[in-house]
Write a structure and sequence with these properties.
- It is a single chain.
- The chain is mainly alpha-helical.
- The chain has two domains: 187 residues, MFS general substrate transporter like domains (Growth Hormone, Chain: A); 204 residues, MFS general substrate transporter like domains (Growth Hormone, Chain: A), CATH 1.20.1250.
- Helices cover 72% and strands 2% of the residues.
- The chain has 20 helices and three strands.
- The chain has a three-stranded antiparallel beta sheet with strand order 1-2-3, with no helix packed on it.
- Strand 2 and strand 3 form a beta hairpin.
- Helix 1 runs antiparallel to helix 6, helix 11 packs antiparallel against helix 15 and helix 11 runs antiparallel to helix 19.
- The longest helix has 32 residues.
- The protein is globular and about 60 Å long.
- The two termini are 27 Å apart.
- It comes from Actinoallomurus bryophytorum.
């Protein structure tokens, strides 16, 4: 097997140190890209009624737009990660913004279904590259201990894009109409593409970064990535923790609260809005804890997964199906907390893979939550239709059975991988720092002072207790 050749890490004594002002400004531009991409991803929800009138669509045809865009996003996750590894996040962010700009131009000018579908597909294609490329920038520009925090802050930027873009888009549609509104989003994407190309650099050193230069086939790299226990654990973490809140926030939360539980529309909207704000506070806090106390990541993940499983089992087994209001709020709030905790999956994947496969690993992880959410949403709709379209409490209990089973299965799998994991074959608890004091990489062991790596291998003592402990991964 041909292994990826990694560039030696650059010293931290250059003009742009890790975590400095330039690093924060570059991440801020990348986070702005993700904010705009998330806004465009959810813009159809705001423009749903206008789209029905413009294209003369029914509810089923309208839902095809969202499913198509999410499907393109899902299918492109691994290719997006591979391309971010091979070509660098700067180029991929520029390409993503240009793809979204072209898609919005087509969507703005479309008067028929095929052209509109093509436009939304291009928006989904560009959207697929943004998150992975931004966290790839965070991995290159910040110290290791801040990666989990930066991943959480990036996700928070996307949530802000969904919340802050709703009112301006609605006002623009009312004031200016369909075509000028979506042409404006296209212009915004194009201008941001110029800013990204001018300001962002892939690495603090300027022109080079730790890109994948492997001669192995892509499928070989993918198998190697999936063979890492940390990657598989991260996939299940994202699958379990992120999916339930997406099901509630994007499609079924409001009908469940209003039709299923009998909550008034105003309080239902307020509940979803306030609980959607929970990840804005929870995600950075968890990211900070994971960065400073990595050993606590596993406990946080298992605790949130167990809480998710409990509240969803209560929801689908409550007698009569009508949860009391406090329990309904707890269901949405715990699901939102799970969405915030799912960002720890990318931290686990980064620890399990070299930088040259960081984008591919992130793409694999991102598939977990989105595939679960898409499957659960479609299953809920099919089961509600099977009950005769009655949006009452017992029908929603049946509709939410698939997502509950996914959460329980994922929680058991996470616990199994955490308790009965096997030591990795090649990478003990030794990490290459990006902060060397010489041209030799720095070897950092837990509890030891960093020192330059020696070119002569140290003798290995098989069966040693300390060696066995150091080779055991932590999550």
């Amino acid at each position: 097997m041909n292994l990826a050749v990694l560039s030696p890490p650059r010293p931290d004594t250059g003009p742009h140190p890790l975590g400095g002002r330039r690093a924060w400004s570059i991440w801020a531009v990348g986070a702005l890209v993700y904010l705009v991409a998330f806004f465009q991803r959810t813009s159809l929800g705001v423009a749903a009624l206008a789209a029905q009138q413009r294209f003369d669509l029914g509810a089923t045809a309208l839902s095809a737009f969202a499913i198509l865009q999410l499907g393109v996003y899902l299918v492109m996750q691994i290719p997006a990660g591979i391309m971010a590894d091979r070509f660098g996040p700067r180029r991929m962010l520029v390409a993503a913004l240009l793809s979204m700009a072209v898609g919005e131009v087509l969507f703005a000018s479309a008067t028929s279904m095929p052209l509109a579908v093509l436009g939304r597909a291009l928006v989904g294609l560009g959207d697929a590259f943004t998150f992975i490329s931004v966290i790839r920038l965070a991995a290159s520009w910040f110290p290791r201990r801040r990666f989990a925090l930066l991943t959480a802050l990036t996700a928070m930027a996307g949530a802000l894009g969904q919340v802050s873009g709703t009112v301006p888009l609605s006002a623009s549609l009312r004031a200016y109409g369909w075509t000028p509104t979506f042409l404006g989003t296209a212009v915004l994407s194009a201008v941001l593409a110029v800013a990204v190309g001018w300001w962002i650099r892939d690495h603090p050193g300027g022109t080079s970064m730790e890109r994948s230069r492997t001669t192995a086939p892509i499928l070989t790299d993918l198998r190697t990535t999936l063979a890492q226990g940390g990657t598989r654990t991260a996939l299940w973490v994202h699958f379990t923790l992120m999916s339930s809140f997406m099901v509630l926030a994007t499609l079924w939360g409001y009908p469940y609260l209003v039709e299923g539980l009998g909550m008034a529309p105003g309080p239902a909207r307020l509940t979803l809005t306030l609980t959607a704000a929970a990840p804005l506070a929870v995600a950075p806090a968890m990211g900070w804890v994971a960065g400073h106390r990595p050993a606590l990541r596993g406990r946080l993940i298992v605790s949130v997964a167990a809480a998710l499983a409990v509240v969803w089992i209560v929801a689908i087994t409550w007698p009569g199906g009508r949860l009391p209001v406090p329990l309904a709020v707890a269901l949405v709030l715990v699901s939102a907390t799970g969405s915030a905790a799912s960002m720890l999956a990318f931290d686990l994947a980064r620890d399990a893979n070299p930088p040259s496969r960081g984008g591919m690993a992130s793409g694999v992880v991102n598939i977990g939550g989105f595939s679960a959410a898409m499957t659960a949403s479609l299953a809920a709709g099919a089961l509600l239709d099977a009950t005769g379209g009655h949006y009452d409490a017992p029908s929603f209990q049946l509709a939410f059975a698939p997502i509950t089973c996914m959460i329980v299965l994922g929680s058991v799998r996470i616990a199994f991988l955490r308790l009965w994991r096997t030591p990795p074959p090649a990478m003990p608890a030794v990490e290459l720092s990006r902060e060397p004091t010489s041209h030799a990489p720095v070897v950092r062991r837990r509890g030891a002072v960093p020192r330059p790596a020696s070119h002569s291998p140290r003798p290995h003592r098989p069966g040693g207790r300390a060696s066995a402990r150091s080779s055991r991964p932590r999550c």
